[in-house]
Amino acid sequence: MTINTTDDRTDEPSELELSRFLPYRLSVVSNLVSRAFARRYETAFGLSIPEWRVMAVLGRYAPASSADICQRTAMDKAKVSRAVTRLVAAGYITRKDNPIDQRQNVLGLTRDGRRIYRQIVPLAFATEREVLEGLSAEEVAQLDQLLTKLHARAATLAPGDGGDAPD
User: Fold this and answer.
1) Are the C-beta atoms of residues 40 and 27 closer than 8 Å to each other?
2) Are residues 108 and 93 in contact, defined by beta-carbon separation less than 8 angstroms?
3) Cβ distance 63 to 54 under 8 Å?
4) Distance separating alpha carbons of residues 142 and 166, to the nearest angstrom
5) % of the chain residues with pLDDT over 70
6) Burial of 117: CB neighbours in 10 Å, binned 0-12, 13-18, 19+
7) Secondary element (H or E) of residue 69
8) Burial label, 51 (beta-carbon count in 10 A; 0-12, 13-18, 19+)
9) How far is the C-alpha of 46 from the C-alpha of 1, rounded, in Å?
10) Alpha carbons 90 and 67: distance in angstroms, whole number
11) Which of 20, 21, 73, 147 has its Cα between 20 and 30 A from that of 96?
């Protein structure tokens, strides 16, 4: 266990107790939850986390560009590009030239992509319920409020880095 000693100049700990550090904790929880979802998507549909995130955005907001997906998911361009390429090859999404801006493509779900999306949504909600199972309804509501506040604050500290506020 790390023992925090106080820096007299700031009244803040001079050593970092990683297990209590917010960015670390959020990252660990996010990774664990993502892995729980990923196992199910991979097993049932052969989709990676980035591929599912692309499909989730398109299922809700299509048509969309890769830049839109980057913004909504806070994933980097390369990760989105690889996922889009695999999903186009699998026949789950379409990629067309944007007639207004030739630098962008317009993405959408194919019939097979919509079918997979409709199958995954109930699985996603079931997995979410499992993750939240240990919390009361009040705690779930409070968690939602706190995450919304943290998201808004983080967005002001890192403007333009993606991750639109949830609906």
Assistant:
1) no
2) yes
3) no
4) 15
5) 87
6) buried
7) helix 66-73
8) buried
9) 40
10) 21
11) 73
How many H-runs (helices) and E-runs (strands) does the chain carry?
Answer: 6, 4
Mean predicted confidence (pLDDT) in 63-90:
95
Residues contacting 114, CB < 8 A, separation 6+: 59
Asked if residue 72 lies in contact with residue 57, where contact means CB atoms within 8 angstroms, the answer is yes
Query: pLDDT digit string (tens) for 1-26?
Result: 344 444 455 567 678 899 899 999 99
CA angle 75, 79, 83 (to 5 degrees): 115
| Residues 124, 62: Cα–Cα separation, whole Å | 19
DSSP E strand boundaries for the chain: 6-7, 12-13, 93-97, 105-109
Confidence (pTM):
0.78
The pLDDT assigned to 54 comes to 96
C-alpha torsion angle, residues 155, 120, 123, 31 (rounded to 10): -40
Q: Return the pLDDT at 81.
A: 95
* Three-state secondary structure readout of 27-59: HHHHHHHHHHHHHHHHHHHCCCHHHHHHHHHHH
What integer is the mean pLDDT of 87-105?
87
